[in-house]
Specification:
This protein has 184 residues and is of the alpha/beta class. The chain has five helices and six strands. Strands 1, 2, 3, 4, 5 and 6 form a six-stranded parallel β-sheet that branches. The relative contact order is 0.19. It is an enzyme of class 1 (oxidoreductase). This is 2-hydroxy-1,4-benzoquinone reductase. GO terms for molecular function: 2-hydroxy-1,4-benzoquinone reductase (NADH) activity. Its EC number is 1.6.5.7.
């Protein structure tokens, strides 16, 4: 498991979003020897096949970031019962141009946070469908639909509720195991 690298992609662009906070909390639960790198998606242009022959610098940086990690952790909100367009756009860029996808066989974990009653279940279902189409091996279980009421994180960025933190630790441990097994 040593020297395992995890790319973290947050589907929300808002700096203080609950999903970015959840991503940082999950990273804080990673065991020693596992490195996390946030891969930003906010500066990617909208996908345009006309650019496949001369990829813009933000796209090159994004693709190199994904290619340079052993696994990817997606943390996504739900917008209008689906995944954010910015996240779908990033996945599209990573899969193009044809034959040059950075996704094929990459293990991934999926989580999301929302104050809504169903958490991010619909967004995650859509995301898993798209990830399957580009060859990502998403961890099937446990699913993380982080529903919260009130302020879920303390000043140090930790999840306030101990039972929830324990559940998230179980998810992180299983994801790291999945990533290590997939890499072997």
């Amino acid at each position: 498991m040593g020297n395992l690298s995890i790319g973290v992609i947050v589907g929300s662009l808002r700096k203080a979003s609950f999903n970015r906070q959840l991503a940082h909390a999950l990273v804080g639960l990673l065991p020693s020897g596992v490195e996390a790198r946030f891969i930003e998606i906010g500066d990617l242009p909208l996908y345009n096949q006309d650019l496949d022959g001369n990829l813009p610098e933000p796209v090159q940086r994004f693709k190199a970031g994904v290619a340079g990690v052993d696994a990817v952790l997606f943390v996504t909100p739900e917008y209008n019962r689906g995944m954010p367009g910015v996240l779908k756009n990033a996945i599209d860029w990573g899969s193009r141009p044809y034959g040059q996808s950075v996704w094929g066989g990459k293990p991934a974990g999926v989580a999301g946070a929302s104050p809504g009653a169903i958490g991010t279940a619909l967004s995650q279902a859509q995301l898993r469908n798209v990830l399957s189409a580009v060859g990502v091996k998403a961890l099937p279980l446990p699913e993380v639909f982080f529903h919260f009421a009130g302020e879920p994180f303390d000043a140090q960025g930790q999840v306030v509720d101990a039972r929830t933190r324990q559940f998230l630790q179980g998810f992180v441990d299983r994801f790291v195991q999945w990533a290590a097994e997939s890499r072997a």
